[in-house]
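Hi C.,

You asked whether I'd gotten around to modeling the 141-residue construct. I have! Everything is below, sequence then structure, no commentary in between.
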Amino acid sequence: MPQPQSLVHQTSSSEAKIALFRSLFRGREDVYPRRFESRKTGKSGYAPACANEWVRGICEKPRVKCAECPNRRFLPVTDEVIRWHLSGRDDVGQPFVAGVYPMLLDETSFFLARREAPRLCRGGGSSLTFSGVCPSSRLPS
């Protein structure tokens, strides 16, 4: 996993901040989910970002679901996408939130999930054990 070369701070360049963000929140690079909110119902969720979404003559939403669309063309994660996510606005000024697909095509992931049972949390023993295991597995704790 690429690591930033120096400490990133408030006055660091946008490029350094984007590189740090991408090193910490890695997932699939070939596609990303974009948050949507229905103007009609107010419901929100995430859907794969598609270059053909709502393009007349190509996209047939809502009649054809994205998963069944023969014209879908997923958009890859780029530094510009991360810049939009961090600023909260895309290139035309619309609200923008990107998600991440953590499961890679080879069924691996850079994410590590941890759940503690409430009874183990009280004494901190589980956290201490976890912190002790991380260095031996070359994981940040």
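If it helps when you're writing up: The helical segments are 14-24, 79-87, 118-121, 125-136.

Thanks,
B.
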